[in-house]
Every structure is written in C-alpha cells, then in structure tokens.
C-alpha cells in the first residue's frame, strides 16, 4: 500500500510540516506527563482511524517505556484498571475533543471538571493543544492514506530541527 500523495515530498506540505513539527516541540517541553500525552495521541488516532499515527504513537510510547498492557487497553480504557484517574480524565477529553461533531456541546462539563481537578493551567493548555494537534495530523494522514507499519521511533527527529 502506498500513500496517495507524499506530503514530505511536496515543497508546500514540507514547509507546513516543519512548522507543524515545531508546534509539537512546544508540547515536548510541557509539564503534561509524556505518558499521558502518548496515551492521548494514541486514543485520538484510534478514533480517527489513522493507522499511521496509531503505529507511530504506540511505538513511541513503547520506546519511552509504556507497558504493552496499557497500550493494548487504551481503546477500552473505561473498562481497564491500569490507568490513573488523571489519565482517565485526559482520555475522556481526548475522546470528546476528537468527536466534537458527535455532541452538541463538544466536551462535556463533567469531563472538563475532571480535567481541571487533575491538571494545572499549563497542563490543561498542553492537553488541549495535544488533542488539537493530533486531530490535525490524523486528518492529513487519513486524507492521503499514509500506510501504517514502517514507522521507527525517532525517525522524524531531523524534521523537527
């Protein structure tokens, strides 16, 4: 399977990608725990059916020390006992923030209250930005049908520079 279009091989898309990666670097420096970020990135990618991003974020999370049990249970986090209350709040925000077209009010007040209970202002800002960024990345990859399976952790590090 090949992508419909090579985003990194196109001058305009590559320029955009470089700036997109720069935005992601801001989140690398955020106070939001990296494992939480990876869980959110993975869950939103699962919902959006972005195989490329599911591949990337499951491998990045594993390389960072995330356990196979937790990675395998992200899609069923509500029924799993391996996530903290803070991670559950972040995963709920990821789902509701990804499925905004499915609910009149978007993110529920209940989910927002849980997020505010577990995260400070800087962490909330990072969490909202992580959800927005991954949804944009998912859409780009799904539109061009970037195939999954060949990602290796760190392979885009040079693009972030």
TrEMBL record:
Gene3D superfamilies in the cross-refs: AhpD-like
Pfam families, per the entry: CMD
InterPro entries the record matches: AhpD-like (IPR029032), AhpD_core (IPR004675), CMD-like (IPR003779)
UniProt GO molecular function: peroxiredoxin activity
Superkingdom: Bacteria
Domain Carboxymuconolactone decarboxylase-like: 17-96
NCBIfam families attached to this UniProt entry: ahpD_dom
PANTHER family: 4-CARBOXYMUCONOLACTONE DECARBOXYLASE FAMILY PROTEIN (AFU_ORTHOLOGUE AFUA_6G11590) (PTHR34846), BLL7811 PROTEIN (PTHR34846:SF7)
Name this protein carries in UniProt: Carboxymuconolactone decarboxylase family protein
Protein source organism: Umezawaea endophytica
